[in-house]
Amino acid sequence: MNLVKWRLHPIISMNIRRHPPQSKTQAEKNRRLLLMDAKNETPGRRLRADARRNRKQLLDVARDLFADEGLDASLEEIARRAGVGIGTLYRHFPTRFDLVEAIYAEQMDALIALAQSLAETDEPGQAFFEWLRAEAEQMVTYRPLKIFLMDNPHGKEPSSIEWKERLLEAGGGLLKRAQRAGAVRRTITATGVLHLVHGVIIAAEASGDGDRHIDDLLAVVFDGLKAK
């Protein structure tokens, strides 16, 4: 999966509201929908090809609709645009939290895969800075999803800690490679680098200047990270 292009994505202005827990009536309705939709499934079977397609289509539609309408976008509308029943959506994603987390996880996987690819193909310094820019892009585009996952009413534990550790491992590998090549100063750590990039995003959001301000701030940070 490709990362989205470097720009301030519409998803950054998502209207994030807390969603109350499902009522017993709604929970029972969802349970019936799940049973109706899954009546022909064999328990324990791996996702069939059509089920995998349905899941991907739901994620693609949800990502676009969340970007256009915010995280409160109708799940029924997501299912309709994906060409599946609402029961199929709930089978794959029992709650809105699960759907948002799946979209976020998809992007984290792409970012980690990018680090692995860059480590095999690009010059160490170039690979490191290219990945940092992609990380900044991801922070800009998907920060509202992360906020939603961290501040959720469902009592579920988000997987952000796991993703943070994996990102640090992926970025840390590129950093050490660049440091060994003499492209990046040896005193900085992977945690410190990600904190710097996060600071750039927060500053850019506060300024309201958008892409250009992010690019200017990243250029300053990148210049400071380079070995002199």
How would the blueprint of this fold be written?
Blueprint: H1 24-38, H2 49-69, H3 75-82, H4 86-92, H5 96-121, H6 124-150, H7 160-180, H8 190-207, H9 211-225
Helix pairs in contact: 1-4, 2-3, 5-6, 5-7, 6-7, 6-8, 8-9
Describe this structure in words.
By secondary structure, the protein is mainly α. The chain has two domains: 23-94, Orthogonal Bundle (Arc Repressor Mutant, subunit A), CATH 1.10.10.60; 97-225, Orthogonal Bundle (Tetracycline Repressor, domain 2). Helix content is 69%, strand content 0%. It has nine helices and no strands. α2 (49-69) packs across α3, α6 (124-150) runs antiparallel to α7 and α6 (124-150) packs across α8. The longest helix is centred in the middle third of the chain and has 27 residues, at 124-150. The protein is elongated and about 60 Å long.
Structural class: mainly alpha
Give the DSSP E fraction (strand runs of 2 or more residues).
under 5%
- Name of the CATH first level of the largest domain: Mainly Alpha
Any guess at the CATH architecture of the largest domain? Orthogonal Bundle
**If you average the pLDDT, what whole number results?**
79
In the CATH hierarchy, the third-tier topology of the largest domain is known as Tetracycline Repressor, domain 2
Domain count: 2
- Gap between N and C termini, in Å? 36 Å
**Rounded Rg:** 20 Å
Helix content: 55-70%
Element order, helices and strands? HHHHHHHHH
> Oligomer, anyone?
single chain
